[in-house]
Amino acid sequence: xxxPQPNPAQLPPTNAIDIPSNRAFESWFEYPVRVQPHxxxxxxxxxxxxxxxxxxxxxxxxxxxxGIEFADxxxxxxxxxxxxxxxxxxxxxxxxxPAIVKTRMNEVTGVRINWDYAIVSxxxxxxxxxxxxxxxxLDRERGKIMRQLPTNVKDALAKISSIHNN
Length: 166
What we know:
Number of strands: 8
Radius of gyration: 18 Å
CATH superfamily: Hotdog Thioesterase
Low-confidence stretches: 1-25
CATH topology: Thiol Ester Dehydrase, Chain A
Structural class: alpha+beta
Order of helices and strands: EHHEEEEEEEH
Number of domains: 1
Number of helices: 3
CATH architecture: Roll
Strand content: 25-35%
CATH class: Alpha Beta
Mean pLDDT: 82
Shape: elongated
């Protein structure tokens, strides 16, 4: 006799990804999106990889908002690849639905940059996704992890920290 399988709707939330309260969204960078046909699978539901693309777009735009152009990082020989990713899908999204991708830099430890994400409805009543991403500074020429972040990148990232802590 096999043991009963747990009902996915009753699984406890993971410890790695908290369900943020609406109050926690106040200091996050916001990036609006709308579900287009190419974002969906055959059933009209957003394909899981689309969320990752939206998260990266929001992160790049957040950096741009404080003066860091990703192209400039590349020109400096610095890349910021994702080295860790954890995602919690709370509710599916369908064709035509607008949403807000919220992102914030959580902490910088050495050359590791941790980001938090939430995708919510414009009225903040629906939570579609929460996620955490860790980037690491990589020397593009050598293909190795940098020992420390370039000074100008550190200074710019400090702007994000001060914005989110106010």
